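Progress report, Aim 2. The chain analyzed during this reporting quarter is listed below.
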Amino acid sequence: MQLLTWNTQWCCGVDAVVSPQRIVDSARALADIDVLCLQEIAEGFADLPGHPGDQPAQIAQALPQWRLFFGAAVDEFQPDGRRQRFGNLIATRLPVLQVQHYPLPWPADGGVRCMPRMCSVLTVRDPGLGAVRIMTTHLEFYSAPQRMAQARALCALHAQACALAARPPAEAADGTPFQTRTHTPHAVLCGDFNLAPQDPEYPLFSAAGLHDAWPLLHPQQPHAPTFMVFDRSHGDTPLACDFVFVSDSLVPRLLHIQVDGVTQASDHQPVVLQIG
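Predicted structure tokens for the chain:
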């Protein structure tokens, strides 16, 4: 299974051109991906630079025969009734077993610029791995207390899912909402975490059984930077803040990870992971 995660900045490149088609084309040129996890996808929000339109629909048009699932962390209406949504999108060509969207904590941090955050979860069936839980997220940038609370919540979500896999609910095949679901300890957690490996949130993930794939596959190399590589509007020093974590059960199956340090289709760089 090949997975690509990318904070797209509402598909706005360093050249200020907004193009969902370019994001999709760049992702598919980088690897023969099975799962595409995108953060900062917009519907509406015409005041954003580049005036994005209905990006989930545009990405669906660019990926015919794929299934797309949009999780809106922000879901609201303008005074004239037009809808505005902003959040995560997962697209896949693998069979889909379950879809879940979890709001993340948003504790008060007075006077600090912030927005709601969420984690989108898609359980897919890979021919070689079986059921895999794909979790993608985008944590708070400005508020450290919110980011810490959100990191803790992600760890709790993983613990809950593993507990359900170990002790599943009573089986049901009655076609009701109580019908049996697929539970699996196999998990990939990816996205823009807005934190660096030296930050206090980072070790929470390994303690929860979610392991950063980069140092496992490149133990002698520092993380390749994924932010502020070309666009320096947020700072002058490139850093790694886009990660792919895998569950204990998938660590032995890691094959390859890479960061595309060339593309300028967003202000972040995409990360590709291969598991086999």
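The CA atoms of residues 52 and 161 lie 35 Å apart. The first helix runs from residue 20 to 30. These observations will guide the mutagenesis work planned for the next reporting period.
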